[in-house]
Amino acid sequence: MEIAAASTVSVAPQPPRLTNAFSRKLSSVSSLSFGSVERKYCLGNAKLRVSASSSVDVVTAEKISPASFLDKRETGGVLHFVKYHGLGNDFILVDNRDSSEPKITQEQAAKLCDRNFGVGADGVIFAMPGVNGTDYTMRIFNSDGSEPEMCGNGVRCFARFIAEIENLQGKHSFTIHTGAGLIVPEIQDDGQVKVDMGIPVLKAQDVPTKLPGNKGEAVIQAELVVDGVSWNVTCVSMGNPHCVTFGTKGGPVVDVLNLPEIGPKFEHHEMFPARTNTEFVEVLSRCHLKMRVWERGAGATLACGTGACALVVAAVLEGRANRKCTVDLPGGPLEIEWKQEDNHIYMTGPAEAVFYGSALV
Ligand SMILES: N[C@@H](CCC[C@H](N)C(=O)O)C(=O)O
């Protein structure tokens, strides 16, 4: 479109078409916005104001209030993101490939995750440059602003996000540096993502837990008293800490559990110096498990990928299940395999984009 020097140009007030949102670099989405009554577009240094009367005004930068949403967008007060979920465990994905510093702070992330006052999510994930020869680095902030080492559902979303912003089609695998070390997701032909989640850590002090090792240095089917009730727990780290329980001495509890009440008591238990994620599990068969989760820093979520991996490890170690299982989470099933050959855990499941947008930060 030619911009005339005159103040009014007769063109229809159609916004530029966003033919393929993902094929653009997200950073360049700043050239578009959609207001309700009046729209402004930037072309070079000039700004076009499109009003309902089908005219376009060329206005200079000085005439635009610096407090407006559109100006904030240009001065760095707006974050572009894509919202994804893996079985209802939902994340705000940020294209941070141009910097090794997250584009927003932990406090801003907590605000964005708020389901009433923000975008709403279980966490914010940053796609950053790789280190030590890896393709990318993934960092994540929980919805309370804390930073965990790893996120299983998040890494599947991360892989799909990278494929979209890099315009990759078909089967693809990436090496990703995380707080839990190297993680390797592979997008399958059917769009599901299979992730090599690495080797589970069982040594009590590395999980970390203050519970004393009862099988060598591992804590397996040990007693943990929570709020006066005795639970059997197995402690596993998938880079982040997990406390897996198949119930109290009285038996399984998954369906009757008051999660918001009991969850925080596990999370903040003195035996877990870095807090913990807790999985409450019921064995349906030797290859079919069902779980509910209370996540450290995020509360009750619909799914937890690292948690599903941890509970299969716990179920195998407690002699309750085979190494290859379907795990039913509130948001849907994950396929988990703890391979004997390499001791690695493999997780397969979906990841879906929901919407993209811009948020004031
Ligand atoms: N939902 C995640 C785990 C996210 C991190 C967790 N809340 C923690 O603090 O360790 C998953 O899918 O693994």
Per DSSP, what share of the residues sits in E-state strands of 2 or more residues? 35-45%
Q: Briefly, what CATH class of the largest domain?
A: Alpha Beta
* Terminal Cα span: 32 Å
Q: What overall geometry do the principal axes of the alpha carbons give?
A: globular
Mean pLDDT: 85
Number of DSSP helical runs: 5
Query: Into how many domains do the coordinates divide?
Result: 3
CATH topology annotation of the largest domain: Diaminopimelate Epimerase, Chain A, domain 1
Q: How is the biggest beta sheet arranged?
A: 18 strands, mixed
Structural class: mainly beta
Question: Which architecture of the largest domain per CATH?
Answer: Roll
Bound molecules: the ligand N[C@@H](CCC[C@H](N)C(=O)O)C(=O)O
SS elements, strand count: 22
Secondary-structure element order, N to C: EEEEHEEHEEHEEEEEEEHEEEHEEEE
Mind telling me the CATH superfamily name of the largest domain? Answer: Diaminopimelate Epimerase, Chain A, domain 1
